[in-house]
Transcription antitermination protein NusB
Amino acid sequence: MTRTNAREIAVHFSFELGFSNETADELLEHMLTRPVFAQIGEEEPLYAEFPDDKQQAYIRTLVKGVYDHCPELDEYISRYAIGWKYARIPRVAVSIMRVAMYEILYMQDIPNAAAINEAVQMAKHYLEPEVVSFVNGILGSFVRNECPPERGAAPAKQDGAEG
């Protein structure tokens, strides 16, 4: 299983938390199991391979992190959803953006551009093109306004500077 697939599973689990009274730990306890993956994997290829220990840890980190920081993440989404009421944003788009924002804010080993790119690619799989553009725009604005420049990123050129 790739990290991309593990991320998508984390989005699925985060989405599901929005429709249950379970905590992240409770959901992970019964969903992140071989029998559940075997059952779901018969119909959904994403679940055909059970995640190894490293991938399980990544899924758990994302799902618990999104669960624990949900109000903060939703505030960022609302702040950058210019012209959209939060309630109007598709729940799948919200789940995708929550995971990406959590990675950007709390998982320093994941480059911001990678988190955004993965979110946009996933959005293309589930959402209409105009919503994909919306997700991309929100995440781009969020990074530009809320995050310091990434370590190791090339400094911006000054006017008149040679390069």
The first helix runs from residue 3 to 17. The chain has two domains: 1-58, 69-147.
